[in-house]
Design a protein that fits this description.
Layout (H helix, E strand, L loop, with lengths): L2 E8 L4 E8 L4 E6 L8 H4 L2 H4 L1 H5 L3 E6 L14 H27 L4 E6 L1 H12 L4 E7 L7
Length: 147
């Protein structure tokens, strides 16, 4: 399976953002890590490996991105307003940096977003905010309280 590491300093976040890209053809799938996870988490947890058949067959490409959860929602030392601001910066990074990069590199317009636990929140949030570019969301939510 093709594997490519990449990074750049995000103007939106003013910090280095890293990613892993698996495959070279097929639908691009943006994969978010779980709460406070890093870009390599989906590979470490064998989720990428479990999809290697689809990647190798050219059905999908997997793009594993970093999060800023520790700087936003999970930053207990920041005010709620500052947490929201940091998350908005992350959303801007995704929409105006990462997504255009993915669509250009993949040469396709059928982007999917995926995540488990808090990564499912990120995938759903991105799909809801960017329905013009995110065509599908694959969500694996964490534990839910009984209602």
């Amino acid at each position: 399976m093709d594997r490519d590491y990449g990074a750049w300093t995000s103007p939106s976040l003013q910090r280095k953002m890293e990613y892993l890209w698996f495959g070279n053809r097929g639908r691009p799938v943006l994969m978010f890590p779980t709460s406070m996870g890093r870009f390599y988490q989906n590979e470490d947890f064998s989720l990428v490996g479990s999809l290697s058949g689809k990647v190798d067959a050219g059905e999908i490409q997997l793009i594993c991105v970093d999060s800023v959860d520790e700087e936003s929602w999970y930053n207990k030392s920041a005010s709620p307003a500052d947490r929201v601001i940091r998350h908005e910066q992350y959303d801007h990074y995704l929409r105006h940096e990462m997504i255009p990069f993915i669509l250009h590199r993949a040469g396709r317009e059928d982007l999917a977003a995926s995540g488990a636990s808090f990564g499912a929140y990120h995938a759903a949030n991105l799909a809801g905010r960017c329905p013009d570019v995110v065509r599908k969301a694959i969500l694996f939510p964490g534990a839910c309280a009984p209602g």
